[in-house]
Amino acid sequence: MSANLADYKKQLKRYRQNRFYCPVCGGHNLTFSPIGKWNCWNDDSRWHRLEIMSVVIPSRGENYSPNPTSEPPPEILLPPIPLISSAQLHLPLMSPVVLSETIGNRTIYQYSECQRVTRFDYRTHKVIRPQYFDGKSWIKGAGDKHWIPFGLCRLTAYPGRLNIVLIVEGQKCVEIAYSRGLPAICLEAGDYSNLTLKHKLEVIKVQLNRPLLVILPDNDLSGLYRVRNILSVANRLNLPAFAIEPLKIEPQLKIGGDIEQIPGLTVQYLMHIIKERNKYGLIRIERRPVAATHPIGNGRN
Going along the chain, which residue ranges are E strands? Predict the structure, then answer.
C-alpha cells in the first residue's frame, strides 16, 4: 500500500484551515480534500509532488530519491553562463544598514517600515512569521503589498560594471553572508511563492542594472527545486545567473547545510568561482531573446 501525504498532516505547518505551507517551495497553498487527495497549487507537477513526498516521508518517497537524511541530493547540472571579461565584474556598493535585531530566541528581520519577518529559534525547531503594519499594530500575515528581497536595500549598483549578487536561502543566511562582506539577498518573504518570484527578480534587475545572480542553495532537495525555478525565471528576464554546488565548496556538508556551515565561502573565493567560469574568453553577455528556451526543467516557474 502506497503512502498518502494526508496521513502525515501533523508534520506540516498549518497556514489556516485545510491549508498548509509546502515543505518544498514554501508557499501556503498545499491543500487536502475530504477524501485525502492533495495538491500544492504553486506547482502541480508530478516532480513537485514526488519531492514533497520524499521530504515529508523520506522512507516512502515513491522511489524518487534516497533517504535525504543519509544521502546527498542529486548534483545540480547547470548550463554555463556567457563568458565575460573579469574587468567587468564588481561587487555592488553596500551600505551599513541594520536590518535585524535579536533578543533572546527572537530575531526580527526588517523588510520595510511596514513589513517584517519574526523568527523564533527553539531547541528542536524554528518558527517564522511574516507580519505587516496596518498603521496601528503588527498583524500576522503578508498583507496586500509586494515584498522586496531581503537585503536588497543595502545594495547599490557599482556604475559601469556587471554587479554580482549572491542569492542565499533565508534571512539568517543573508546576515551571515553580509558579515563576510558578501552582497547577499534572499527571495524568501511574507509573500514568497513561485507566483511572486518573477516580481522579485524584476526588482533586482532594475535596482542593480541587470546583475549577475550567483545562487547558493541549501544542500537539500528544496534547495535544488528553488535553483531550478530561479534559473528558469531569470532566463526569461534576461538575467545572467548560475548556481554554486555547495558540496563542491564543502564536501562534508550535511543535508540541509547552508552558508553558515561553509566558512570557506568568502568574497575572494566567490570571485575565484566566477572567474573560473569565465577564464576562456572576453565575451560580452548578450541580451537573450525573451522566447529563449529554458535552461533546466520544463520551463515552469
Answer: 14-16, 19-20, 30-32, 38-40, 89-90, 93-94, 100-103, 106-112, 115-121, 126-133, 138-140, 155-156, 162-168, 184-186, 212-215, 241-243
CB atoms < 10 A from the CB of 63, how many?
8
Specify the pTM. Answer: 0.71
**In the structure grid, which three cell numbers stand for residue 261, read together?**
556551515
164 near 91, Cβ under 8 Å?
yes
Calpha distance 20→14 (Å, rounded): 4
List all residues 6 or more positions away from 125 whose beta carbon is below 8 Å from its beta carbon.
none
Residue 222 near residue 171 (C-beta atoms within 8 A)? no
209-243 pLDDT per residue, tens: 999 999 999 988 778 888 888 988 998 898 988 89
CA distance 119 to 105: 8
- Classified as helix, coil or strand, 68 is coil
Q: What is the pLDDT of residues 30-53, one digit of tens each?
A: 888 877 788 888 776 766 777 788
Beta-sheet pairing, 212-215 with 241-243 = parallel
How many Å apart are CA 172 and CA 108, to the nearest integer?
10
